TrEMBL record:
Keyword check for Nucleus: yes
Function: Core component of the RAG complex, a multiprotein complex that mediates the DNA cleavage phase during V(D)J recombination. V(D)J recombination assembles a diverse repertoire of immunoglobulin and T-cell receptor genes in developing B and T lymphocytes through rearrangement of different V (variable), in some cases D (diversity), and J (joining) gene segments.
The protein's name: V(D)J recombination-activating protein 2
Keyword Zinc: yes
Region ranges (Disordered): 357-412
PANTHER family named in the record: V D J RECOMBINATION-ACTIVATING PROTEIN 2, V(D)J RECOMBINATION-ACTIVATING PROTEIN 2
Pfam families registered for this protein in UniProt: RAG2, RAG2_PHD
Chain residues that bind Zn(2+) 1: 421, 425, 448, 455, 458, 461, 484
GO BP terms, alphabetized: chromatin organization; V(D)J recombination
GO molecular function terms listed in the Swiss-Prot or TrEMBL record: sequence-specific DNA binding; zinc ion binding
Biased composition (Basic and acidic residues): 385-394
Gene3D superfamilies hit by this protein: Kelch-type beta propeller, Rag2 PHD finger
Length: 492
């Protein structure tokens, strides 16, 4: 067991509470943060590299046929093993955006290709569900079960905003537990069904969910109704019978009192390590636990924790993710220390034996991060970036050239969505509605490359067609707005 301090190389601001770590095609990915201006990757997804005692990030691109994947925090993330010719993939449901909007969408993330220089390109598709569809939420879990030769996705828990009919000015941003229903997804047909069981009478979020064959175990979690983290454990058995599934639930005596814990698998068997989380609002959970799933059920064993540093012991909050089999990435706030320029200290914790250690560049996946609801919202990067140099779009085998540099970030006072881009600008932040079908939560913008600084202009004000806007987003030339060229778009 080792606890290693990491130095983030110009990327500390991109790791915030609520982020997710997941492993695809042997590469560790950071998901859920803002995009990367002035680069070919404004997606908010980054590859993570541990090099000696340094933590580095590099851009991950998406295929041209991918849908937009918002920067979601605390979503439900579920890994799908390869089956029936389908590649390994991840399901991502719900989550909060940096603007505190809550999603109800379901996405599937797969590997699209590997370039000749081994750079990873992802493909993201939104999956439509029909039937009894779960509402927007975050802090919930998804797992896969197998029964009678069939597979299904199980979603449970989470929290959301108070229903619209009950919200008042004072309680507009109040959160409530989602109804304790179990949702089953048939991924082949896109059907969703909701199930209510008497044993699951209270809502819970930021719990752990582990599955083996036809059983799912729900461990711990936080309940807003009672503001508690009871020591609870449920075993949900699902039989995927012809016609309709049969669900049964049993409350077990042994359990863990925790929320927002991190979990990692330690090998091909169903053996896991649970680390971190909270026992109460003011007390972190410093213990480590081994969880084993076998034919006899679930078993817990105490595991000696790392030799925590004073910064970890005395911090009020912490967060992190699963960094591969037997590995964790952990972050604690610097608590306003003037001698520390970064917002967080970062650590890599490894429970691997010497024989089982992986190569430094091979890492893993994760579940949800933390219920740190009061984190400062970040600006997400949903706008389209133009004015990129050709060499910024070309693949390069030089890894260092792709590492994140905070100096690449735009001045938000100049690139915010709601700037007045021109005298005739009609975009109003209070009344804005999507103008293009490709727009989600913010209007599309184009960057005028005139001069050293340049400036942003709303594509709607430039009277660009959506077809032209999409074409420009895939180009590599510089563009001028109406004030700086004879036509809305002009190459150098």
């Amino acid at each position: 067991m080792t606890l290693q301090a990491l130095t983030p190389v110009n990327c500390a601001s991109l790791l915030q509470p609520g982020c997710s770590l997941l492993q695809l095609d042997g590469e560790l990915l950071l998901f859920g943060q803002k995009g990367w201006p002035k680069r070919s990757c404004p997606t908010g997804v980054f590859g993570v590299r541990f090099k000696r005692d340094e933590l580095k990030l590099r851009a991950i691109s998406f295929s041209n046929d991918s849908c937009y994947l918002p920067p979601l925090r605390c979503p439900a993330v579920c890994r799908l093993d390869p089956y029936d010719g389908f590649p390994e993939s991840y399901l991502i449901h719900g989550g909060r955006t940096p603007n505190n909007e809550i999603s109800s969408s379901l996405y599937m993330l797969t590997m699209d290709s590997r370039g000749c220089n081994q750079k990873l390109t992802l493909c993201c598709k939104e999956k439509e569900l029909v039937g009894e569809v779960p509402g927007a939420r975050y802090g919930h879990t998804m797992t896969m079960v197998r029964s009678h030769g069939k597979t299904a996705c199980v979603l449970f828990g989470g929290r959301s905003y108070m229903p619209a009919g009950e919200r008042t000015t004072e309680s507009w941003n109040s959160m409530v537990d989602c109804a304790p229903q179990v949702f089953l997804f048939d991924l082949d047909f896109g059907c969703s069904s909701a199930h209510t069981l008497p044993e699951l009478s209270d809502g819970q979020s930021f719990h752990l969910a582990l599955a083996r064959e036809d059983c799912v175990y729900f461990i711990g979690g936080h309940s807003l109704t009672s503001d508690s983290r009871p020591q609870r454990l449920f075993r949900l058995r699902i039989e995927l019978l012809q016609g309709s599934p049969l669900l049964s639930c049993e409350a077990l005596n042994t359990g863990l009192s925790l929320s927002s814990a991190i979990i990692t698998r330690t090998g091909p068997t169903h053996k896991y390590i649970v680390l971190g989380g909270y026992q109460s609002d003011s007390q972190k959970r410093m213990e480590c636990t081994i969880v084993i799933l076998d034919e006899g059920g679930i078993h817990f064993e105490t595991l000696e924790p790392p030799n925590w540093t004073p910064d970890i012991l005395h911090s009020r909050t912490w967060f992190g993710g699963n960094a591969g089999e037997g590995n964790f990435l952990l972050a604690v706030p610097t608590e306003g220390k003037q001698s520390q320029p970064d917002m967080h200290y970062f650590y890599r914790i490894s429970f691997q034996t010497e024989e089982g250690k992986q190569d430094e560049g091979t890492l893993g996946c994760s579940q949800e991060s933390t219920d740190y609801d009061n984190s400062t919202p970040l600006e997400d990067s949903e706008e389209l970036y133009f004015g990129r140099e050709p060499h910024e779009l070309e693949d390069s085998s030089d890894e260092e050239g792709d590492t994140y540099n905070e100096e690449d970030e735009e001045d938000e006072s100049q690139t915010g969505y709601w700037i007045k881009c021109c005298l005739s600008c009609q975009v109003n932040s209070n009344t804005w509605e999507p103008y293009y079908s490709t727009e989600l939560h913010r209007p599309a913008m184009i960057f005028c490359s005139r001069g050293e600084e340049g400036h942003w202009v709303h594509a709607q004000c430039m009277e660009l067609s959506e077809t032209l806007l999409v074409r420009l987003s895939q180009g590599s030339k510089k563009y001028f707005c109406l004030d700086h060229g004879a036509s809305p778009v002009k190459s150098d």
